[in-house]
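User: Need the bound-state model for phosphoenolpyruvate:
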Amino acid sequence: MRKKIVAGNWKMNNDLNQTILLIEKLKKIEINEVSVMIAPSSLFLKTAKDLLHDFKIEVVSQNVHQENKGAYTGEVSCDMLKSIGISTTLIGHSERRAYFNEDDQVLLKKVKYAIDSGMKIIFCFGEQLIDRKSNKHFEIVKSQLENTVLKLDSESWSNIILAYEPVWAIGTGETASPEQAQEMHEFVRNCISNCYGDLISEEVSILYGGSVKPSNANEIFSNKDVDGGLIGGAALVLSDFNEIIKANS
Ligand code: PEP
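Assistant: Bound-state model below.
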């Protein structure tokens, strides 16, 4: 049975004190069968990991570089993450694609490197508004996957979580309708099935991301191919994040 997951992407929010405060509050929430993850700033991953060492919340990285070491100022490698006990990283978030020029070529290197390093990845993808308006969203998503994760071998898939995040819904307050989310998730699962078979495609958790909030989480998560959410803004507000976790339980 595939995992239900709610992952909070804190992006470039929360200084050290705010990180500690929010984690202390998170420690008090009830977590049952859903896997909960948070991705604080890389500066505070170790602090977060230490604070949560006895708790059912996994601390994950927002990003990783594609090379293991060397002259890459400001970057972080899988070995560095693993050395502080972090074993999962986001890759391909739309903000990395848009503001840091991460194209499919770079992302392929990143996913290969992370998987070869024994890490789990949450691979993000999704179309822009213009793609959806011109009815190219399936084509775009297919090519984003074909150029990256669908190039990996079948053994890699036990370490891959996918996150469909239509760019027009991220941080905009606009959400894909439950029907739009379900049809894309089903499409993605079919793409995986065509490459690797049903056994693998049925086991992959596919999260939805894009303005998920307490008021829409239930509807979105109740779709059969939506296995949880990647949450931005609402992950910074304890009560909202808690409600979203409950909606996926
Ligand atoms: C995200 O950044 O992955 C995200 C989904 O953000 P938000 O929930 O704020 O739209």
